What we know:
The chain is mostly helical and 212 residues long. The protein has one domain. 90% of the residues lie in helices and 0% in strands. The protein is elongated and about 75 Å long. 24% of the residues are buried.
Amino acid sequence: MRVLITAAFLLLLSACQSTYYSIWESMGVEKRDILVDRVESVNEAQEEAQQQFASALEELTVLINFDGGELQTAYDKIKDQYDASKDSAERLTSRIDKVESVAEALFDEWQDELSQYSNESLRRDSERKLKDTQRRYGSLIKAMHRSADKMQPVLTALNDNVLYLKHNLNASAIGALQGEFDKIKRDIELLIKEMNGAIAQSSEFIDTIKSN
């Protein structure tokens, strides 16, 4: 029964997506246009995530170097940074999923339409462009997932810090977290580097799509 329910849900989801794309196509917006828009949306989410995780690092730096003041306020700030970072990660993952959805629909349609050509030269050229676009897309989506995956270790470490401080809100507790700081800093720097790489690949992919 569970398998049937899952299959029915997937069919319904597929039908909804098909209707969604059909509506846009009726207004002159093709799947390739939607793909470009969604890749750009991922870029925006990556840039926002970079800023957010950098902000979290700044706040953690302040906390680690805590030298008097209200500890509760310091804790509240780092907790807010963790929550915002988690939201940023979820937003990025959701947008990557949407890129994958429209890319799959686009490539399926492109492949199916190859059989409709009567001109063999045009068909071969279209097939070559399809394979090249799929290759570039495969590299891009891997880069997107790599950058998204780099967020999880940082979120895990930030959550550990927040939980520890929640139940040990004192100066000695902050001292205990100093050993974790360097690793978090390295992870965030690596995350930002991965995202910069993914953003650069996205720009190249968009240029390729627009030139086809």
